[in-house]
Write a structure and sequence with these properties.
This protein is an alpha/beta fold and about 270 residues long. Strand 2, helix 2 and strand 3 form a beta-alpha-beta unit. Helix 7 crosses helix 12 and helix 8 packs across helix 9. The protein starts with a strand and ends with a helix. It binds NADP nicotinamide-adenine-dinucleotide phosphate. The site of NADP nicotinamide-adenine-dinucleotide phosphate (NAP) has 28 residues, from helix 1 and helix 4.
Length: about 270
Amino acid sequence: MKLAFIGGGIMAEAILKGVLNAGIAKPGDVQIGEPRPERRAELSTEYGVETYASNSKAAAGADLVVLSVKPQDLPAVLSELKPSLEPAQAALSIVAGAKMDTLTKGLDHSAVIRVMPNTPAQIGCGMTMWTCSQAVSQDLRDLAKSVLRTVGEEIYVDDEKYLDMATALSASGPAYVFLFIEALIDAGVYVGLPRDTARTLALQTVYGSTKLVMETGLHPGQLKDMVVSPGGTTAEGLQVLEKGGVPGIIVEAVDAAYRKSVRLGQG
Ligand SMILES: NC(=O)c1ccc[n+]([C@@H]2O[C@H](COP(=O)([O-])OP(=O)(O)OC[C@H]3O[C@@H](n4cnc5c(N)ncnc54)[C@H](OP(=O)(O)O)[C@@H]3O)[C@@H](O)[C@H]2O)c1
């Protein structure tokens, strides 16, 4: 399997680490197109992969060409790759908001895959939603799936409309969770805990609660009820959260992000 990355930034490095660690590709199977010489040197030294200033050279011979540049750099990348993609290759874009139609027309290429990952992919705990065009062969679909699995969980959808929803929930989601964690730590300090202790308590609480929902398969509301004793401390805290607009405000936040994603996709 040969893999190319166009743009050697944070997300590309996360996927690169994933595929190398999983043994899906060897360093010699990976080529990266990246404009910054220092970054090229960094990636080739660290991972032993080939790096190029030219994106079309980087893409040559790859089964999957991963487009991992920022949205503002995508038009230039599409124009550069347009004359060079072979019919047997598929382009896999992780660029937020870049629609299948934009990719297909911009590359003049029918085999395209659109992926929405999130930052926990950096430690192999990502959540990715993806879709692809009819023209992507079963082999390349399987390959894309196995590449995405190296950085966490993945869900394939037939309908592209779900990608805007995943953008609002799982791609933006880590920021919401980090905000919650930060507030929980600050709250611990507010009531008198040393900051490092508050951090340990907050992180393990979020981590353990997530695992408990996953491993028991119980509804989160049911697990919440198990923490709340009548007239107790948790009921007091929850009452303040509900008065402050949680959970309704979380629904509004995800809805606002979703609407923004749809607007951005309309150009
Ligand atoms: N980070 C996230 O949470 C997240 C989640 C889901 C999706 N995404 C998507 O993933 C994509 C990459 O994000 P990132 O966080 O990895 O960004 P990043 O770290 O900035 O990486 C982008 C890389 O592309 C390089 N680049 C710029 N212009 C280029 C060109 N013309 N050809 C080739 N490479 C070029 C940049 O080089 P320079 O440094 O020299 O500019 C940089 O190394 C974005 O489109 C983003 O929407 C990100």
